[in-house]
Amino acid sequence: MAAMKIIAICQSGGKFVTGKDGCLSYKGGDAHAIDIDNQMKFEEFKMEVAEMFNIRADSMSIKYFLPGNKKTLITISNDKDLQRMIKFHGDSSTVDIYILIEEVLALEVSNMPASRSSRTTLSETVAAAPTPLNVCHTPVADTVLDDVRDTNQIYTNMGMDIPQEVLPSVPPNSSNDEKYAKGAQQWQNTITGVGQRFSSVHEFRESLRKYAIAHQFAFKYKKNDSHRVTVKCKAEGCPWRIHASRLSTTQLICIKKMNPTHTCEGAFATTGHQATRSWVASIIKEKLKDFPDYKPKDIVNDIKQEYGIQLNYFQAWRGKEIAKEQLQGSYKEAYSQLPFFCEKLMEANPGSLAVCTTKEDSSFDRLFVSLHALLHGFQQGCRPLIFLDSIPLRSKYQGTLLAATAADADDGVFPVAFAIVDDAESDDSWHWFLLQLKSVLSTSCPITFVADREKGLKTSIAEIFEGSFHAYCLRYLTEQLFRDLKGQFSHEVKRLMIEDLYAAAYATKPEGFQNSMESIKKISEEAYSWIIQNEPQNWANSFFQGTRYNHMTSNFGELFYSWAADADELPITQMVDVIRGKIMELIVARKAASDHWETRLSPSMEEKLKKESQRIHSFSVLQSTCSTYEVCGDVTEVVDIDRWECSCKAWQLTGVPCCHAIAVIGGIGQSVYDYCSRYCTTESYRLTYSEVVHPISCTELSASKDSQLVVTVTPPPTKRPPGRPATKRFGSQEVVKRHLHCSRCKGLGHNKSTCKV
User: Fold this and answer.
1) Which residue has the higher pLDDT, 215 or 204?
2) Alpha carbons 396 and 325: distance in angstroms, whole number
3) What is the pLDDT of residue 744?
4) Residue 201 and residue 574: Cα distance in Å, rounded?
5) What interhelical angle do 42-53 and 79-88 show, nearest 10?
6) SS3 of the chain: helix, strand, coil, percent, to 5
7) Percent of the chain with pLDDT over 70
8) Which secondary structure element, helix H or strand E, spans residue 470, and what is its range?
9) Is the distance from CB of 52 to CB of 753 less than 8 angstroms?
10) How far is C-alpha 366 from the geometric centre of its chain's CA atoms?
């Protein structure tokens, strides 16, 4: 197996500063770089760091942030921690490491069970050891202790062992002096004695649990089935006992025997409480409805304060998950509602397409959605330009979101269609998506697709949208370049190559393209050859035959992807409806904003026209034919006024006359606005947002539960696997590695610990 390499940027001597959003930033200090891989041992890494900063190895702690989380510091204390950190950052080239000299509090490990069987609800607690007197409390240490419990959810989702430094410790019982916690006082008499009746076994168990919580003791089941329950106090030798069974010919459960005496003075101090996940969910559900970001650590604190119960982090997290499902609905039920949901979505929005397909076993396969308001807006007001991209979903059953977005007259994101597919992004999925898109688009104008250059997508676009153009995404092209030529270039060299590649792509003339490519050739002939062989006619302005309006990357629709990313943990029907709601709000907001525009062009296009007008200085305009003009300035360009073309290509690329065309148009006494593309006008913008998206009422969705559906849809067989979910990918350029720099000999490619000088 090939070693996974990464550059560790080690920093020491600075301090952490907490921002208004709670995120930590590291200020000051010194930094050095170390090459590490998954073969390196922790002690080897620690000694190298200690030597680098000239500090004692036993006096420092080594920490890092999880990707995308600047609030939680994770400690590296053994080989497993180091390998986990490398795995977390496997998609990145570098990782920031922080060396703290302070003595940070070592958290005690809770031995409360993370799960329990259906036959027992016992959760045991071990009191934490007293806080050592020699602990050095610092702002950094306090921040770490406050935030570190948030990390447990990540490890829970990953199915991995949890490092000791992020397990929650269980504090000593601080409520022994107060017999009953405030919230539990109401439950003291839920069990009254022999003869008390309950409507079901479930009601009896819940009442018994509340009774035990109120009286602060733990119990265990001796018998527990659908018609009888026998329970005794868990404390050894304690005579407390209760037996209930079903009354004959009824479903009622009656207490037949009970010894209410405790000789153990309650088993609270050593064995915890009968707090199941369902009980936690019932307690927090109402608050979770008002505060969706209710954190498990806050749940632990609140239940401790209100009910005197010390939960561990996992009980709180799992209880929250159950409460979320109770509030949001079942994932499984959401899949079964999909056919009805699609039907009602199309009924509410005539002219839309919402179609769901299943596999042979009736499990979910794909869902395609394109609303009439979006199709009408694209075909009436948007440029014939579509961006294709995808993002992975973090939902319980994973999946991938495929999306087609467009650019409105003000260069804003306009969704056209989207799909959710069970399999990862694949050739078949894109082919199916494009077939559905083709079926709802009635435009005869050739469309330019800005997308990845993968073989399947390239073939599908050419086959399904015959006569259209495929413009390669420059971001994907750049990433592929450095993957194929991995490890050959330093950080600075990569940065320069990226700049030259983008300059070559944006160049409007072949000579400009070639000048930028020559700069790359001077750096690396291999990179030059790779770029030339990868079809510049599909990504360089100077050779591309279609019209991409200077949009070079496919991630133009990041606004839309953020909507999906924010809702992807909801059941599938709710996620789609959230996206529909966001689209509805977008249309209403932009339509209202455009009502106040008084210019002929949209604001961004007016600004472009203004900038081009300011570039006119001492141009000399000479007429060649009735429609052709020669514009002389620093360079000479040819303008064809009838064909709306300039040899500089800026007019064709943007749809707004360039400075050369403006000089000609002004010279012949005509309005420059008459020569602007209709896709740049306020009128087109208003046409884009002229239709509305209609909602589906909650009563209609509720009715689907009782309806007899012809098509049955079950959840896909794949669930979220162990491991950290992929971080959200937004941005147009990849992160490139920093090059090692030796502080001893000032050479490159090594540090002072491996220096031969």
Assistant:
1) 204
2) 11
3) 67
4) 34
5) 80
6) 40, 20, 40
7) 80
8) strand 469-472
9) yes
10) 21
pLDDT tier at 624, thresholds 50, 70, 90: confident
| DSSP single-letter state for residue 723 | S
Q: State how far the Cα of 678 lies from the Cα of 497, in Å rounded to an integer.
A: 37
Collapsing DSSP to helix, strand or coil, 439 comes out as helix
Whole-angstrom distance, CA of residue 537 vs CA of residue 471? 9
717 band by pLDDT with thresholds 50, 70 and 90: confident
Cβ neighbours for 669, distance < 8 A, ≥ 6 positions apart? none
What backbone phi and psi angles, to 5 degrees, belong to 20?
Answer: -65, -30
DSSP character string of 187-230: GTTS---TT-EESSHHHHHHHHHHHHHHHT--EEEEEESSSEEE
CA 447 to CA 86: how far, in whole Å?
Answer: 43
Give the residue, 79 or 156, on which the prediction is more confident: 79
Alpha carbons 68 and 692: distance in angstroms, whole number: 36
Per-residue pLDDT of 633-643, as tens digits, reads: 888 999 999 99
Determine the Cα–Cα distance for residues 594 and 606; give it in Å rounded to an integer: 14
Contact 280, 309 (CB under 8 A): no
Q: How far apart are CA 224 and CA 231, in angstroms?
A: 8
Residue 487 has which token pair? 């490890």
Instruction: Give the CA distances from residue 184 to residues 187, 216, 303, 470, in Å, rounded to whole numbers and listed in that order.
Output: 6, 9, 10, 66
Query: Could you report the per-residue pLDDT of 364-406, keeping only the tens digit for each?
Result: 999 999 999 999 999 999 999 999 998 888 777 888 999 999 9
Cβ-based neighbours of 250, under 8 Å, separated by 6 or more: none
Tokens of 648: 């500089």
DSSP 333: H
Q: What are phi and psi of 654, to 5 degrees?
A: -110, -25
- DSSP strand pairing (385-392 vs 364-370): unpaired
Amino acid at position 104, single letter: V
Distance CA 745, CA 755 (A): 8
Q: Using CA atoms, how far apart are residues 314 and 299, in angstroms rounded to an integer? A: 11
Identity of the residue numbered 448:
T
User: Do 420 and 400 meet the contact criterion of CB atoms below 8 Å apart?
Assistant: yes
* pLDDT level of residue 701 (50, 70, 90 thresholds): low
115-135 residues labelled b (16+ CB within 10 A) or e (exposed) = eeeeeebbbbbeeeeeeeeee
